[in-house]
Amino acid sequence: MKSFAHFILFVMVTLSFTLSTASGQTRNVGRGVKVTWYGHAAFKVETAKGKVILIDPWLDNPKAPSSARNIDKVDLILVTHGHSDHIGNTVELSQKFDAPVVCNSALAAYLTGKGVKKTIILDYSGSYEADNVKIVMVHADHSSTIEDGGARIDGGLAAGFVIQCENGVTVYHAGDTGVFGDMKLIADLYKPDIVMIPIGGVYTMGPREAAKACELLNPKCIIPMHYGTFPALTGAPEEMKGYLPVQLKSRVVDILPGDTIN
Ligand code: NI
Ligand code: MN
């Protein structure tokens, strides 16, 4: 009887594991806030009231799903830093949807020169609020030089973004960064529900450092990003999970490009 109970437990655990890793699932973690991954660091956050925010929209990345071409509404674009894998398709998307770009001042000057009509300049701890959705620029430990046709242009300081939605759900996109102790400040101040954390290594945290970041941030839900895009970005969600402290209650939702959680 006891072994039968163990078998049932095994089936249940296997089933829940399958549901939490399969592609195309939606999961009840965002309380009406939908988060879609387009591969690499590119995300769409749709608030409960329908405001659509793109972050680092490189929609031509090698892992981008075909659905990345079907975006039909954009209210705001956030760009964390000046590297091309984060600026991505910002200029054309901003023009097509008449969407302002939130970024640092050096990047804003560059993007304006490329034809972006409206930028909203923030610096660390600064915020922008519209329709009861608040965007806060936060620290990141990373470089930000813009490379354009052989020229190297100042891209200001790299950043992350905290998005506080109308219904209180808070999303933190870390951008490209190493782990830093002040992630604890981000946790204390904003209490993020959902965090997008780079885990690929080389240019950002790898799995071990990312696990430490998750421990400092203590969110409800962790979405690993910035891995697998190129062969060099070897960090994998399973490896990060192995470094997470057992007492941490955060749930790792290792979605695939094209997946949405809500
Ligand atoms: Ni970068
Ligand atoms: Mn990057």
Give structural notes.
It is a single chain. With 262 residues, this protein is α/β, with parallel strands linked by helices. It has one domain (27-261): Ribonuclease Z/Hydroxyacylglutathione hydrolase-like (Metallo-beta-lactamase, Chain A). 26% of the residues lie in helices and 24% in strands. It has helices spanning 2-21, 84-87, 90-97, 105-113, 183-190, 207-217, 237-243; strands at residues 34-37, 43-46, 52-55, 76-78, 101-103, 119-121, 127-130, 133-139, 146-148, 151-153, 159-164, 170-173, 194-198, 221-225, 251-252, 260-261. A seven-stranded mixed β-sheet has the order 6-5-4-3-2-1-16, covered by helices on one side. Strands 7-8-11-12-13-14-15 form a seven-stranded mixed β-sheet, with helices on one face. α6 (207-217) crosses α7 (237-243). The termini are far apart. Residues 41, 83, 85-86, 176, 203, 226 line the site of manganese (II) ion.
